[in-house]
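Run: sequence + FE2/S2 (inorganic) cluster -> complex structure.
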Amino acid sequence: MSDVKKIKVEICLGTTCYVLGSFRLSSLEEQLPPNLKDRVEVVGCACLEVCHDRNYGNAPFVRIGERIVDNATVEKVIEVLQEMVAAGGSNE
Ligand code: FES
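>> structure
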């Protein structure tokens, strides 16, 4: 299992996202279900530069692999991760 490529989850800690709730995602890693714990790497990051682009929706934003998730909550991020793992777990 250790050679499985991890899916990178970047929680935006830029001002807009932080104020609008990305701080609530700090517990994401502890809340991951057992099947995701070894598959996911959770990190914080600076502004993802999508908060001023309405095409991306509303903050807070999380980047999962190459995908931007808006209105991010722990539940929504876990849902997207489960879909990605079910689809093969690609980080590309
Ligand atoms: S502050 Fe999060 S995308 Fe800019």
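>> summary
The pocket of FE2/S2 (inorganic) cluster is lined by residues 12, 14-17, 47-48, 50-51, 59, 61 (CB under 6 Å). The first strand starts at residue 7 and ends at 12.
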